[in-house]
Design brief:
This protein is 33% helix and 19% strand. Strands 1-2-3-5-4 form a five-stranded antiparallel sheet. Strands 6-7-8 form a three-stranded antiparallel sheet. It has a three-stranded mixed sheet with strand order 10-13-11, covered by helices on one side. α4 packs antiparallel against α5. It has eleven helices and 13 strands. The protein folds into three domains: 85 residues, 2-Layer Sandwich (Phosphorylase Kinase, domain 1), CATH 3.30.200; 142 residues, Transferase(Phosphotransferase), domain 1; 70 residues, Trypsin Inhibitor V, Chain A (2-Layer Sandwich). It is of the alpha+beta class. The protein is elongated and about 80 Å long.
């Protein structure tokens, strides 16, 4: 892909070849920024309009665990998705060169799991967790590149996340044998930086996922527990079987045990002081005071395990939660008749995201011929507007 995409995006180097296209590094020469170009062939029976509608939901989703969709260009039977560029490397390329400790791996994988749970809240689901669709940033976090296409069932959700963990541990892309027997493969895999209890705990978790006994949140919390306890979940203790839940609820689970332990300690101190100062009598001189602490719930995770938000599951709201302002109303501007650059500037000035498509038209080349939604339509800042640009007569 050496040719320039429209008049704005210039590819520089190819990152990886995909079954239906490729990913390139590139530059947005208008805004002078680095971007990723995800070029994919249109499927049979698919046109640019249907493709835009396919990822319209994902285009409005913004999360640091995903590469934001910035723009799209459609031409010559291809769609090119313009994505946010992050410092780092494709995880497939980093897999055999990064030597991480067991704790590092568990932190990275559970952090990715929290990002997936956040995406579930906005109905962004079904994307692949293949090694060619994950980006390992310089901050040590994994992020998803393509989250608008459905991946294979074995690469989604809890099973997909479990495979990512296995690939980290084994430092190989291919995992031998059926997924249901992955735990047996782990038993033979050396883990020099893990304790024997941590290894057995991970094997048990993987077995539960493979047998359909552990949901995505259950798997994530199980990973956290390996770090917080440095050991194995008791055989008689069932991991919490939790349906996919918003991550804010998970934060409540995490902070509850620590608060209870603090309260219990204060109660014990108060009882001891009362006993020590209580007036003595002959009837009480031989009496023994016995205080039995009540059993408290075992913590699901240690909030201090991960230093990278939002993987840090804590009851304290993040800056983005406390400082986020409600979206303001926006009116779709009239872009028809404008040049491409003017139309882009008008859309950005209104606080909108935009996509544009090229089409053969009798109007002057580079002129906007139509738009969707229509001018004057009321919406919210962050909504998408799509416009069509004339390529001139053939």
């Amino acid at each position: 892909m050496n040719e320039q995409v429209s008049s704005r995006y210039v590819p520089s180097s190819q990152i990886v070849t995909l079954h239906n296209g490729a990913i390139y590094r590139g530059k947005d020469i208008v805004l002078n920024r680095q971007v990723l170009l995800y070029k994919t062939r249109l499927q049979e029976g698919q046109n640019s309009d249907t493709f835009v509608r396919t990822y319209s939901l994902q285009a409005g989703f913004q999360h640091e665990g995903f590469h934001h969709i910035l723009d799209t260009v459609s031409e010559d039977g291809y769609d090119v998705i313009i994505l946010q560029s992050k410092p780092g490397i494709l995880w497939k390329d980093a897999l055999q060169t990064k030597h991480l400790t067991f704790d590092n791996v568990i932190n990275i994988v559970s952090d990715l799991g929290v990002s997936i749970l956040d995406a579930l809240e906005t109905q962004v689901t079904g994307f692949s967790l293949e090694a060619t669709n994950l980006w390992l940033g310089e901050n040590g976090r994994l992020s998803v590149i393509n989250y608008w296409d459905n991946g294979e069932s074995q690469a989604q959700g809890a099973i997909g996340l479990c495979r990512v963990c296995m690939q980290f541990i084994t430092q190989t892309i291919e995992i031998p044998g059926p997924f249901e027997t992955l735990h047996a493969h782990l038993e033979r895999q050396p883990m020099p930086t893990a304790t024997a209890e941590q290894k057995q705990g991970l094997i048990k978790l993987v077995k539960q996922v493979g047998q359909g006994q552990a949901s995505l949140p259950t798997f994530i919390f199980g990973l956290r527990k390996l770090l917080s306890t440095n050991g194995l979940v008791d055989e008689g203790e069932a991991l919490p079987s939790i349906a996919p839940i918003p991550i804010r609820e998970a934060r409540k689970f995490n902070s509850f045990p620590r608060a209870n332990i603090t309260v219990l300690a204060l109660v014990l101190i108060a009882v001891f002081i009362t006993w020590a100062l209580w007036p003595s009598s002959s009837s009480k001189s031989n009496r023994h005071v016995s205080v039995t602490p009540s059993q408290t719930a075992k913590p699901l995770a240690d909030p201090s395990v991960s230093k990278q938000p939002p993987a840090q599951i804590t009851a304290t709201p993040t800056d983005s939660e406390t400082k986020a302002e409600p979206k303001k109303e926006a009116v779709i501007p009239n872009l028809v008749g404008l040049s491409q650059v003017d139309a882009e500037n008008h859309a950005l000035a209104a606080g909108l995201h935009y996509n544009f498509l090229l089409e053969t038209n009798s109007q002057a080349k580079g002129t906007v011929t139509k738009q969707e939604p229509a001018a004057g339509t009321k919406g919210m800042q962050g909504d998408n507007v799509t416009f069509w640009i004339s390529k001139g007569n053939p």
